Amino acid sequence: MQTAARPYPAGGRVIFIGASTGGTDAIKQVLLGMPENAPPILIVQHMPEMFTGAFARRLDGLCALRVKEAEHGEAVVPGTAYIAPGHSHLLIRRAAAGGYTCALSREEPVNRHRPSVDVLFASAAELAGPAAVGVLLTGMGKDGARGLLGMRQAGAWTIAQDARSCVVYGMPREAAVIGAACEVVPLDGIAQQVLRQVVSGGGRGSPGSPS
User: Could you tell me which of 33, 15, 49 has the C-alpha nearest to residue 148?
Assistant: First the structure.
């Protein structure tokens, strides 16, 4: 469904978040730290499709910014967080008028997941590059680690949640091991670090060991 909202400028910062086991509370904590005028946020949380809409509505009632389940073709705008529906991959696409739109895909699962964090992060690396900030939160497995590395190699600033604050230190651990994270941060510091990058324009990620 296409929204009439004005697209976000392609050069503007966009935040991308991925999570799995323990991620609902982690995402809530990060979003509670975001102001109502935060850059657009696109989120993949591994969750069955019957729960993602309710999850988005619950967060929308708690957070300063708007939180909604993503719809195919809608403009990506500031002050809004988009949750991938449990039945589809979430990606960004360039809008004809500039900026980005959400795209949903029913392609095969990646890393046994649909939605997959790697799919979202790969689109961020390809289209947003250094304008992106990537965050990989608690979760089992490795989904998102390779995508976060791709984002870092494309110039994005990338953050992995630290072991102590994770419910399951799987996905962030894989990201740290392969050098995908510019920094490893406790959950209670992630929103602040993301906003610091957004406000300052941030350093640009590059391949190498986490800082």
Answer: 15
96 token code pair? 């004809």
**Of 46, 113, 118, 162, catalytic:** 46
Q: Which of 78, 116, 115 is nearest to 99 (CA)?
A: 78
Q: What is the pLDDT along the chain (211 residues), one digit of tens a residue?
A: 344 466 777 668 999 999 999 999 999 999 999 999 999 999 999 999 999 999 999 999 999 999 999 999 999 999 999 999 999 999 999 998 889 999 999 999 999 999 999 999 999 999 999 999 999 999 999 999 999 999 999 999 999 999 999 999 999 999 999 999 999 999 999 999 999 999 876 556 655 444 4
Q: Is 72 tagged catalytic?
A: no
